[in-house]
Amino acid sequence: MAAHKTTLCLILLAACLAAATDGKLSPEYYSTTCPGAPAIVQAGVVAALKNETRMGASLLRLHFHDCFVNGCDASILLDDNATFVGEKTASPNNKSIRGYEVIDKIKGQVEKECPGVVSCADILALAARDSVVYLGGPSWEVSLGRRDSLNASKEAAEVSLPEPTFNLSDLAVNFWAQGLSFRDMVALSGAHTIGMARCTTFRDHIYNDSDIEPSFARSLQQFCPPRGHDDVLAPLDLRTPAQFDNSYYVNLVNYKGLLHSDQELFHGDSADPIVRNYADEPAVFLEDFAKGMIKMGEIKPLTGSAGEIRKFCGKVN
Ligand code: HEM
Ligand SMILES: *[C@@H]1O[C@H](CO)[C@@H](O)[C@H](O)[C@H]1NC(C)=O
Ligand SMILES: *[C@@H]1O[C@H](CO)[C@@H](O)[C@H](O)[C@H]1NC(C)=O
Ligand SMILES: *[C@@H]1O[C@H](CO)[C@@H](O)[C@H](O)[C@H]1NC(C)=O
Ligand SMILES: *[C@@H]1O[C@H](CO)[C@@H](O)[C@H](O)[C@H]1NC(C)=O
Ligand SMILES: *[C@@H]1O[C@H](CO)[C@@H](O)[C@H](O)[C@H]1NC(C)=O
Ligand SMILES: *[C@@H]1O[C@H](CO)[C@@H](O)[C@H](O)[C@H]1NC(C)=O
């Protein structure tokens, strides 16, 4: 009997150990190797957001732009050098993605505690969740164990990331290609309840589109002229720009989406009922957003012996 128990334990232990290296992410991944990691990440995020609230939006977007380009593997963090061109200068990222220094600083603190253990890709996933929570949004459990890529692809970044000129079917196809549903697409777009966009990304919408409330368009035209001032910023959610709430959808129902792609979700098409539901029922949105983030965070992770744990997020070891 005792012998049987021991055998059973050994079999289960082997199964558990196999699972840990078998391409499965787990919230407990660092519980023996670096139990303090999630708290270090959270403290770093809180410090960064206390200094500048917008950084929460920037960190959320950083994780998204990592995951949509060959999976959540920190490929976006690799710096260009004389012999290597990565994703940082790809058109959706260049002069647009922010937060690299915040991640580098957190990585340095985590390395001090447990050198060579915690991946940059996992830090991005935790920082996105912690940012949303700090700004009043939903929480979710982040599974861990992603490893960092040995390469990056500027071309893939330009092909895989959605653009603000996209129509509804372009958006649906783009998310579907990542294994995300139409509903996931509508829910994850609610990330635009925080953060800012540059004039160059919404100019055509405020001058040329008809699915926009006229006084809203005029007020934006005051500082985003037909030409020039490309980098002047407007909040993606004018009502509550620093609060993670459902007001993005309330804006859409009132034809006050900032980007062309935002208003595509509500202008007499198949996403309208979902948008109305999120505008009326904040809890439904917050729950769907959290579910969507879990799915997005698990796109094609590198696990087992694939990739590496980078020492510095900007450079392969
Ligand atoms: C649905 C397709 C999407 C399109 C076309 C899109 C496009 C954009 C554009 C053009 C900007 C402004 C960039 C700039 O002016 O430099 C932006 C900002 C932002 N996006 Fe998206 N996005 C999409 C989905 C998402 C998703 C899924 C997330 C996260 C889950 C996200 C999070 C953000 C955040 C937080 C910002 C503000 C960043 C900051 O203030 O630093 N977006 N997006
Ligand atoms: C604080 O935020 C400002 C922008 O508002 C930025 O220039 C500065 O580098 C940040 N400082 C720290 C320590 O993060
Ligand atoms: C990226 O932006 C910089 C300006 O900050 C510009 O000089 C450079 O040409 C851009 N790179 C690409 C590849 O577009
Ligand atoms: C990195 O990716 C590029 C573009 O896909 C490829 O040409 C290059 O050979 C890769 N480098 C390594 C070291 O795998
Ligand atoms: C959406 O845009 C694509 C091109 O990006 C076009 O082929 C398609 O016809 C458009 N769909 C609708 C419904 O306008
Ligand atoms: C609006 O559309 C016109 C005609 O297609 C085009 O010439 C112009 O560049 C577009 N954008 C703006 C900001 O007016
Ligand atoms: C350039 O960056 C790549 C990717 O991080 C790295 O493999 C390579 O060693 C770097 N080269 C130099 C000279 O730093």
UniProtKB/TrEMBL annotation:
Ca(2+) 1 binds at D66, V69, G71, D73, S75, E87. It comes from Linum trigynum. Substrate binds at P162. GO terms for molecular function: heme binding; lactoperoxidase activity; metal ion binding. Coiled coil: none annotated. It is found in: Secreted. GO terms for cellular component: extracellular region. Keywords: Calcium, Disulfide bond, Glycoprotein, Heme, Hydrogen peroxide, Iron, Metal-binding, Oxidoreductase, Peroxidase, Secreted, Signal. The record marks R61 as: Transition state stabilizer. Its cofactor is heme b; Ca(2+). Residues 1-23 form the signal peptide. Belongs to the peroxidase family. Classical plant (class III) peroxidase subfamily. PANTHER family: PEROXIDASE 59, PEROXIDASE 72-RELATED. This is Peroxidase. The keyword Thylakoid does not apply. Its EC number is 1.11.1.7. Disulfide bonds join C34-C114, C67-C72, C120-C313, C199-C224. GO terms for biological process: hydrogen peroxide catabolic process; response to oxidative stress. It comes from the Eukaryota. The lineage of its organism: Eukaryota, Viridiplantae, Streptophyta, Embryophyta, Tracheophyta. Residues 24-317 form the Plant heme peroxidase family profile domain. The active site is at H65 (proton acceptor).
